[in-house]
């Protein structure tokens, strides 16, 4: 009987448990055992695994987070860690690995696949920035959470005649800001793909005020930056195992600039990890389930080095290597659509 190892890496995300459940249940259908690898790639380095049964995944479908735990471990940083990982794959008799994660987790999976280790991928990120798939699970939930927050902030902004700045996640891609901004009726959307001109932003917001609309909502992705060569704003110079700095602070930067330039009371709401927590939407539960089933089918077909992906309404297989080669950034046609409402 073959054994599948399944892990979740990177930031937690609504829908992870739905994938785990689907992998275990589909594995049972085809006669496979499943080992849960704890805390992402760290679990394979440290040999921290546990059997997953039908009972293990009972009731986890609607739960947020991941029952396996997660980490931002990069086993390629140390040769000794990589050797321990390979030794533990043999020790626990793992015939194939399902790696559920974003660009970093799948980047490791791609490298391991290139070394001949049987790996398949499942794309996970609330940022929706993994190439090769129309959508990643977790994104729909994040957009729903941010849209609800914008709806709630509208009433406060209008009551107090304020500008409300909403800072959302999005390191390199502004999908959450764009989609939730459109859905929530934001008056300005600032994303990493398009450096923003503060003069233009102020011009739009001033036009609203002069037309009698005494409040505004500005949605900004954490990775957005002002034009003129200034970099992104970070909370710390420290980086994680994949070299990423912790972003955050662009909302406060905007608050100070807008108050000074417009003379309007401005407040900031940083949604932070609220965006990735809680129960997944129905859409994300279904998409995550379909991804999990596809991952096991790829293993059954010995079609390794591939990632389950959404293409239109179909779940297809795409090479992991291609999926992590470039980030999927915001469709500029969609962003241009949102600009119709700026200053209105």
Task: Pick out its properties.
alpha/beta, Rossmann fold, 344 residues, single chain
Structural summary, described in words:
- Helix content is 39%, strand content 19%.
- It has 344 residues and is an alpha/beta fold.
- It has two domains: 3-137 and 280-323, Rossmann fold (3-Layer(aba) Sandwich); 141-277, Phosphofructokinase domain (Rossmann fold, 3-Layer(aba) Sandwich), CATH 3.40.50.
- β7, α7 and β8 form a beta-alpha-beta unit.
- The longest helix is centred in the middle third of the chain and has 22 residues, at 139-160.
Q: Biggest sheet, strands in spatial order? A: 3-2-1-4-5
CATH level-two architecture of the largest domain = 3-Layer(aba) Sandwich
pLDDT < 50 runs, ≥5 residues: none
Helix content: 25-40%
Mean pLDDT: 92
> What is the radius of gyration computed over CA atoms, rounded to a whole number of angstroms?
22 Å
**N-to-C order of helices and strands:** EHEHEHEHEHEHEHEEEHEHEEHH
Catalytic activity: beta-D-fructose 6-phosphate + diphosphate = beta-D-fructose 1,6-bisphosphate + phosphate + H(+)
Main location: cytoplasm
GO molecular function: 6-phosphofructokinase activity; AMP binding; ATP binding; diphosphate-fructose-6-phosphate 1-phosphotransferase activity; fructose-6-phosphate binding; identical protein binding; metal ion binding; monosaccharide binding
Site (Important for catalytic activity and substrate specificity): 104
